[in-house]
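Q: May I have one protein plus its fold?
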Amino acid sequence: MSEVQHMDAMQQKWQGYRRQSGPPGIRNRVLVIYTVKCSEFVARRIVEQSAHPDVELIGFDGCTDNQYAVDLLISLIRHPNVGAVLAVGLGCEYIQPQWLADIAEHAGKPARWMFIQQQGGTAPSIEKGLCWVKELLQELQNTPRVEMGMSDLIIGAECGGSDYTSGLAGNVVVGRFFDRLVDAGGAAIFEEIVEAVGLDKLLVGRAANEKAAQEIRYTYDKALDYCRSVRQYSVSPGNFAGGLSTIEEKSMGAVIKSGSRPIQGVLKVSVQPPQHGLWLLDSTPDPHWMQFGITNPNDNEGLMDLASCGAHIVFLVTGRGSVVGSAVAPCIKITGNHETFTRMAGDMEFDASPILRGAVTQAELTEQLAQYVAQIAAGTQTKSEALGHREFFIPYKYQEKQVAFQRACEIDK
């Protein structure tokens, strides 16, 4: 083991990528964006045929306006891990690729855009896109480097495919790491307020100030109202098969990943933390005519929500195992189930199960996770990155940019 590896992980430094505006990044990627489902094929072919690990895809399927999706795309363009942008549109959709490219250039990131209709169809558009991607990659070679440390990081966490070990090991080590990250001057974001059922007093009691307490109280009540209105809570057959009994039991495991530090306030999707510390992300729709019948569509929506808040890295804690990665922000998959880790060793990044066997202390396991985070931040690929897992999901949704303090029942009055 080298001298650097013996160093306290929270003190380690690495070279990041300086941005003209905003914090530095740990990756320097060309983001190819499709602005409507009709342009996805061309955009995906550009990414696939470029065959470059720093070229990746995101997009929005919808043809009509949705401010939530627009805000999310803009936040990913401005994300510190993104160095350049290529926006691909068909030509008749609401979200215009030139507008997205202009936003990227205003943030100091080289950008290109196209309408497939104007390029002459599929083959000419792919050819043009590949040429532009090559140019953008060349430009990114000149990106200035800057020293980074844990205090520069924003890290987000969510659960997916939880089992009985999630609340005993996987989420526990994330919570302890979050405590250390916050103490080091970094920012930590946890989400899934719909998985905090029954724990409202605990969360409100951890508020850093009265404003944060009001935001948490409102956000919890809104989420509970939403779950009741759509008659669905964030618990699945897979959770029951993994040994969980109720949404309340799942909630206790889910909330422990937030650690123990004061909660500075509530973030909305696409809003970066205004300062370091621990933050709760609210991804539940705000009161509106638009409802979906589900609380969390899938894990990748949650990961994209975290990335939209500027998370350099995202954690996915999963007892039963997962294979997904994340676009823009490298995904570290953590499990407290040793059988899961062994069976899915090619996909799972971190095994938290030794704590259950008494093989390590909580402090030792937390340091191991911190060391791994430092390696990923310094440029080492996660297993999902190496395999090419860069999933994303951007749905239609209605959500305000700030906590609105208006309950659904008040709208009808």
